[in-house]
What we know:
Elements: E1 2-8, E2 22-27, E3 30-34, H1 40-46, E4 56-58, H2 64-67, H3 70-80, E5 87-91, H4 95-105, H5 107-116, E6 126-130, E7 134-137, H6 142-146, E8 165-170, E9 180-186, E10 189-193, H7 201-207, E11 212-218, H8 220-223, H9 229-232, H10 241-251, E12 255-262, H11 270-278, E13 284-286, E14 292-297, E15 300-303
Amino acid sequence: MIEVTLLGTGSPMVDANRAGPSTLIRAGEQIFLVDCGRGVLQRAAAVGVGAAGLTALLLTHLHSDHITDLSDVITTRWVTTFVRTPLPIIGPPGTAAVVAATLEALAPDISYRIAHHADITEPPAIEVHEYTEGSVWNSLGASEATGNQDVGASEATGHEQAGVQIRVAPTDHRPVEPTIGFRIEYGGASVVLAGDSVPCESLDALATGAGALVHTVIRKDLIARVPQQRLKDILDYHSSVEEAAGTATRAGVGTLILTHYVPPLAPGQEDDWRALAASVFPRQIELGDDLHRVEVHPGVCISR
């Protein structure tokens, strides 16, 4: 079974009730954080997960709302881990540069803590790996198997811990590129996390036959009515509710999990959003507030 928790269902639009985009995946003993929008560690704390307990951080792309709290994840992991445990960060090309810039911004804080604590003798231990497609978490040396480049680590991210397998494929969020989606498999269950994307063949292929698809969505019918062109600009590189449902239908997934609601999903509107998805996707549809959880079993999904 894989447990999906929508830690943050918000967007760049600040919402007092929704943290920034982030999803927590529990697969056996492994805990993966997918994206790290504003407030992510506070939401994770609400389900008993701290930065020290993360197996890896997975980044779908480098838009600010998806990495707002990267510095918090890095710093909190560093100061709450008492045995050196590098944090794997897996993302698209550009991730290493963003992490390096984040560490540079944190340089004063890092120096203060090293000077103050006798048991902190080095900066945060991070292993950055950049991919656009292929296997990224398995028993093989993933970079050798896929031809992708590892950045900042002496070994590939290959792991076969508790049978968890992860692979990635390109998505389409242009002009933001490259962007990737993740497929996580464990014990016969599978979950695909699309990130921000319009429909595309590579996402369809990645999601084919998955137990659940976690997809960011916007209401194009509502956004088209706003007067500001800057807000209308988002129409051409995000999926509408119906388009995300179309991806789920083409891929034959078991459950569609909606997140990253734009405009913010207001109380009482859930049925409207669900009806739009249901007009295209005939199976289980999940959406809700931060901390909404869905259990994905082989062939069965149970929401909580």
